[in-house]
Write a structure and sequence with these properties.
Number of helices: 11
Distance between the termini: 57 Å
Radius of gyration: 56 Å
CATH topology of one domain: Bacterial polysaccharide co-polymerase-like
Strand content: 5-15%
Order of helices and strands: EEHEHHHHHEEHHHHEH
Strand order of the largest sheet: 4-5-3-6
CATH class of one domain: Alpha Beta
Mean pLDDT: 79
Shape: elongated
Structural class: alpha+beta
Helix content: over 70%
CATH architecture of one domain: 2-Layer Sandwich
Low-confidence stretches: 1-7, 101-111, 319-325
């Protein structure tokens, strides 16, 4: 490098380096200026338009999901919704006889399982289609919920099928059981005090009718079963008596035991006479020859007594297979067996007859009855709908739904950004 007249002279190499630095600086400035314009352009108008779009979405979704449903609910509950009146009844199921306390009842104080089961049958019947069909015939239940003065949301369309009416009915009735006493609480809603009272009374009548039908079926089954058992016992007794009579006629005796006793008495008497004859024979043989007429007579009498004893004993214990002659012992076995069968059949018949009488006495009293201690009364004030509470519930539920929806939209927006 050299200086001439105050000018700074640069070498070609230095001059090229300065030119390269100036070009790099110019390129850097140009690059930063275009990025700034692009950033300004994006962060200005486009940012403001996107922000306005999300603000509109925020207000639109809030109005559509929260404001409009809440306003509709407010108008409906304030000016359109029909008043609903409630009638309540309470009853318990009791048996005609004091219930037996089982182990579960003793430990928990809960009524016996039979009473609990019958109570559940009655409460389930109050929700059933069978009840609605019965009430439709007696009080025209469907017409009470389809009157034109009822608001359209709560009114039931009478043209809908019975299955829809059962579902609608379950929303208008509430049945609960208070344990451990087993108290059944029935509340029914209608759109006039008179209708609610009429329906509540009809429910009690239908429940009592159901209990009476159950009583009648149980009584009919108990008496019918007892009569069937008595018939079987009577047929068995008749068969055993006929068999015993036939055996007596075949054997030729009425009472084998008496016959046996009589034969034993005969054997004893003959043996006693034989003993006397033998003594007489032994005392005379010392002085009289065996060939003497009186001795031959004594010997014949002794032989006849022995033959008689042998024959009588044969009737009791022996059996001549060649002649097929039945002994008294076999006859006694046959007759005793048939006599035992007759006595057993008589005992069974006596028990069956007693069971029939007990069943008939039981059928004259109620096995189970409905004990109503709170009867329905005419309502003076509408209990439903809860206008303020229902409107508040609509607002809170729609607010929760809107919050969930807006949260999902915000997550999607941040993920896209």
């Amino acid at each position: 490098m050299s200086e001439i007249g105050g000018d700074v002279r640069l070498s070609p190499r230095e001059r090229s380096q300065l030119v390269a630095q100036a070009l790099a600086e110019a390129a850097r400035r140009a690059r930063f200026s275009s990025r700034g314009r692009r950033a300004l352009r994006q962060g200005g108008y486009q940012a403001r338009s996107r922000q306005r779009f999300w603000r509109v979405c925020f207000l639109a979704t809030f109005a559509a999901i929260v404001v409009i449903p809440t306003l509709v609910a407010s108008v409906y509950y304030a000016f359109i919704a029909s008043d609903q009146y409630v009638s309540e009844s309470r009853f318990t199921l009791r048996t005609g006889t004091p219930p037996k306390i089982d182990s579960l009842s003793a430990m928990t104080g809960i009524p016996s399982m039979l009473i609990v089961q019958d109570t559940l049958i009655v409460t389930d019947f109050l929700y059933s289609r069978a009840l609605l069909e019965k009430l439709e015939k007696s009080i025209q239940l469907r017409e009470m919920f389809a009157r034109p003065e009822i608001d359209g949301w709560a009114r039931f369309d009478p043209d809908k099928p019975i299955e829809k009416f059962v579902k609608y009915w379950k929303s208008m009735i509430d049945v609960s059981i208070k344990m451990p006493a087993g108290i059944v609480v029935v509340t029914v809603r209608a759109f006039s005090p008179q209708d609610s009272l009429k329906i509540a009374n009809a429910l009690l009548e239908a429940s009592e009718s159901l209990v009476n039908d159950m009583n009648e079926r149980m009584q009919h089954d108990a008496v019918g079963l007892s009569l069937q058992e008595q018939k079987r016992a009577s047929d068995r007794l008749l068969e055993t008596r006929v068999a015993l009579e036939r055996a007596r006629n075949t054997e030729g005796m009425l009472n084998a035991e008496e016959t046996h006793k009589s034969i034993n008495e005969l054997i004893t008497g003959v043996q006693s006479g034989l003993l006397k004859l033998q003594q007489q024979y032994d005392s005379q043989i010392r002085f009289v020859a065996k060939t003497a007429p009186q001795m031959r007579t004594l010997q014949q009498r002794i032989d006849a007594a022995k033959e008689q004893i042998t024959a009588l004993k044969a009737q009791l214990t022996q059996n001549d297979e060649a002649q097929r002659t039945k002994t008294l012992s076999s006859t006694m076995s046959t007759l005793d067996y048939l006599e035992l069968e007759r006595k057993i059949a008589e005992r069974i018949y006596e028990g069956a007859t007693t069971a029939v009488e007990k069943a008939r006495l039981t059928s004259e009293s109620k096995l189970m009855y409905l004990n109503i201690y709170v009867t329905p009364v005419l309502a003076e004030e509408a209990r439903y709908p809860h206008r303020v509470v229902n409107t508040l519930l609509v607002f809170l539920s729609t607010l929760a739904i809107w919050g969930a929806v807006w949260g999902l939209l915000s997550m999607a927006r941040n993920h896209k950004a």
